[in-house]
Amino acid sequence: MNEGRVIGLVSGKGGVGKTSACVNLGIALSRLGNEVTLIDTDLSASNLGVYMGRYDHPVKIHEVLSGEASLQEAMFRHPTGVNALVASTEYPTQIRTHPT
Ligand SMILES: Nc1ncnc2c1ncn2[C@@H]1O[C@H](COP(=O)(O)OP(=O)(O)OP(=O)(O)O)[C@@H](O)[C@H]1O
Ligand SMILES: [Mg+2]
User: Fold this and answer.
1) Where are the alpha helices (DSSP H) in the chain?
2) Which residue, 3, 43, 92, 99, has most beta carbons within 10 Å?
3) Which of 20, 27, 41, 44 for mutating ligand 1's site (highest number of atoms within 8 Å of CB)?
4) Does ligand 1 come within 6 angstroms of the Cβ of 60?
């Protein structure tokens, strides 16, 4: 089995196209035969869920990091074939990461 690879798309400035690039790159890599999972690590002003048409997905990365939900519960498969783990724009408290 091939090892997974992590590609981070980051910027010090907002609105430069990170999420657009992430979605399009992810779909392109998926079409080339790769298993792709998009993960939104913007814990306060996320928008991957909006781009994936799933802003209302009930379980997000916040619940995984806080230990309230499993990764399997939070991840979903988009019709394009990419998996996604989206973040909340309205998580009520500061995240306390769970040790396990
Ligand atoms: N290559 C591009 N050409 C023109 N417009 C683009 C391009 N990439 C993104 N945009 C537009 O720029 C805006 C910001 O894009 P996007 O949401 O991907 O940026 P972001 O870096 O993720 O923003 P944020 O910091 O708010 O998360 C959107 O309106 C998007 O449609
Ligand atoms: Mg973004």
Assistant:
1) 18-31, 48-51, 61-65, 71-74
2) 43
3) 20
4) no
What was the pLDDT predicted at 92? 67
CATH number reported for the structural domain that contains residue 67 in this entry: 3.40.50.300
Atom in ligand 1 nearest the alpha carbon of residue 42: 27
Question: What are residue 85's phi and psi, to 5 degrees?
Answer: -130, 110
Count of domains observed in the chain: 1
As averages over each run of 10 residues, the pLDDT of the chain (100 residues) reads: 88 93 97 97 89 92 92 96 92 66
Domain of 53?
Answer: 1-100
